[in-house]
Protein: Pyridine nucleotide-disulfide, putative
Organism: Ichthyophthirius multifiliis
Amino acid sequence: MTLIKLKALKKLQMILSVLQVLFMIIIMCQNSMNCVEISEAEKLYSLSLIDLRNNLGFLIRLFIWQKIDLIKKEQERKLLQNQEKAVDYAFPQPKYAEALEKIQKQKNINVYKSSNLIEVNKNNRKATFQNMKTGEIQEIDFDLIHIVPPPKLPKFLQDSPQIVDQQGYLDIDEYTLRHKKYKNIWGIGDCSNIPTSKTMAAIFSQTPVVVDNLYHVLSGKGDQQLPSNYDGYTCCPIFVGNGKLMLIEYKYGYIANETFMAHQEIPSQFFYKLKKDFFPWAYWNLVPKGVWHGRKAILPAFTKAFTSI
């Protein structure tokens, strides 16, 4: 897993107890849910300081659209999205990016790119940003703010420069999930430098690959041609309000790789129920028993008939 850098943002550690400031890590906690009582918020901001390899990017929209769905009064609502790396798109996968941009316009959400949050003034409810291209400083008022700090890798990786890449992630082959230099090291999940979004669905797809390849090597069958490859599959479920959800699935190269149908960019109540009820049930009842392998567990032959819909 990855940690978060609270020290990366000036004064951030001092405002953890303020109800108007929410962190992804406590979205489901009481502090966060109490903020739903703010029913007259005019300026609702969600801020990301992360790079695209992290698993939290899609949670920005999930959070902001959940709150908008709960705040009933019709008024101006704004989303200010900052990312550590300047990007000019709503989502890295083109088809879903187009769909998300349409929803943002429908919900009157303004997305400001290339801005970096550098300070939060809790008393005056002001956030200070720096334009990543021009260096210009801008101070903005907010009623409710959601912040996703940048990730922080565990200490054992920070203390092991020989096994990580330049960004500090475990340096493994993106297909076999084996370390590029040290053949007795394998990796999955957030700490690896796999070029895909780091989600639970991705880890469930990576695990069988490592198990299969590791068993192959330990069985004395050689390690030159490993039997399993990971294709970069990941899944980002994005709640868009009104009891609907967009189930975004793609693989390496941001190539759409849907499980259920070809047009999953259309929000669906079915996907919402899947995320709300079935996935948690599978996590607590199937994963501990080792019988759940994510997408491969729900991709029998009959589902392929729907991929052309």
About this structure: The chain has three domains: 3-152, 155-218, 234-306.
